[in-house]
Write a structure and sequence with these properties.
With about 375 residues, this protein is an alpha+beta fold. The protein folds into 2 domains: about 1-110 and about 355-373, Aminopeptidase; about 180-315, Gcn5-related N-acetyltransferase (GNAT) (Aminopeptidase), CATH 3.40.630.30. About 35% of the residues lie in helices and about 25% in strands. The strands form 2 sheets. Strands 7-6-15-9-14-13-12-11-10 form a 9-stranded mixed beta sheet, sandwiched between helices. Helix 10 (about 300-310) links the parallel strand 13 and strand 14. Helix 7 packs across helix 10.
């Protein structure tokens, strides 16, 4: 079946994704407004009957001093990845982006390859002979994902390793932690927590921790804790205007697209987090906390309130986002993995991000430059 791809309006794009159970929060039109250093474009696929059957948010990052771009579709595009004629979906996209001046295209098919239950992850951490989750037998596996990876390689796509978002090293996590909410009561969800989580929630409640929803005016309080978290954990923080722009852009598209939660204790904000919602999928996006009064367990209280609200919104999944697949005791991210999986979540592996060089010489030169940086 032949398909036509063309630029579509934000309104057409939003109507398409709103009719689906969910898409990534990185594939809604408003996400382009969060990234001012990238030029955003919505593209759509039409079938022979003229119906819009696929869509994607493309972010175009200019190459310094040249009118050439890296084209990036984070956790997208939203197409039929199981289609037998996948080439008829991707080739028009490559042709379109090449005309736009792209020298390379990166995409992240939203396709799950493997899942590990909380018990399987716990066993992997406890086994000194296991170093990475990827080497452990998965609880469930999707064979069609391996077939898709082989097809992409035959088409000339190459999987890339995840990276940061500085310069051209854009990237999203390949491994995430998700808690299933669909068809479960809050009691059943809480029953899936490990003993430490349940104990900490009770401690927070007994200590008088109160979790409330915040607004735009509370973002400076969130950011103050976020800066403290960045210094403690050793990552480069985003500036406050980034979160203010994020709030303005996302809530303008839908009032519940982004929420802010703050955990208070004795008049002080001890922890805060942002939550994103698209359809039936809810993400814990950014978290922040102080080192003071950690014994009252504000982080567990905060996450439990967010999960309860996600359940009330009718979410099918609560997504803790990125985790490490390293299960060695000396890995500094292992504590975060334990925390997220402790909520009864599954470790989930996605197909990862894939590159297609439209200009091989320029693509190779840019990759070499970045590797030397």
């Amino acid at each position: 079946m032949s398909r036509r791809l063309e630029t579509i309006t934000r309104e057409e794009h939003l109507r398409f994704v709103s009719a689906l159970p969910s898409v990534s929060h990185l594939q809604v039109p408003s996400w382009g407004d969060v990234k001012p250093d990238w030029r955003a474009e919505s593209v759509g696929w039409y079938d022979e009957a003229g119906r819009l059957v696929g869509a994607g948010l493309v972010l175009l990052r200019p190459l310094p001093r040249l009118r050439r771009y890296l084209a990036y579709l984070p956790e997208g595009p939203v197409i039929d990845w199981a289609a037998a004629d996948l080439e008829q979906w991707l080739e028009p996209m490559l042709d379109h982006l090449k005309r736009r001046g792209a020298f390379s295209v990166r995409m992240g098919p939203p396709v799950v390859t493997r899942r590990w239950s909380a018990g399987a992850v716990k066993a992997a951490i406890a086994d000194p002979g296991v170093h990475r989750l990827r080497d452990v037998k998965a609880t469930t596996q999707q064979p069609e994902a391996s077939e898709l990876a082989a097809r992409l390689r035959r088409m000339g796509w190459r999987r890339t390793e995840p990276g940061g978002e500085d310069g051209f090293a854009a990237g999203q996590p390949r491994y995430v932690c998700q808690v299933a909410l669909a068809g479960r009561s809050l009691e059943e969800i809480e029953g899936g927590f490990n003993q430490q989580w349940r104990r900490n929630i009770k401690k927070a409640e007994k200590a008088g921790v109160k979790v409330v929803r915040g607004g735009y005016e509370d973002l400076p309080d969130f950011h103050r804790l976020y800066l403290e978290t960045a210094e403690r954990d050793g990552f480069v923080p985003r500036p406050l205007p980034y979160f203010q722009r994020m709030w303005t852009a996302l809530t303008a598209e839908h009032p519940d697209r982004m929420r802010l939660y703050l955990a208070h204790h004795d008049g002080e904000v001890l922890a805060a987090a942002t939550m994103l919602t698209v359809g039936e999928h809810v993400w814990y996006s950014y978290g922040a906390s102080t080192s003071r009064r950690r014994e009252v367990q504000p982080n567990n209280a905060l996450q439990w309130r967010m999960m309860c609200d996600a359940h009330e919104l009718g979410a099918a999944v609560y997504d803790f986002r990125g985790i490490t697949d390293t299960v060695e005791e000396d890995d500094h991210l292992l504590g975060l993995l334990r925390f997220k999986v402790g909520a009864g979540g599954e470790a989930v592996e996605y197909l990862g991000e894939w590159d297609y060089p439209l200009n091989k010489a320029l693509h190779t030169a840019v990759r070499l430059y970045l590797s030397r940086r």
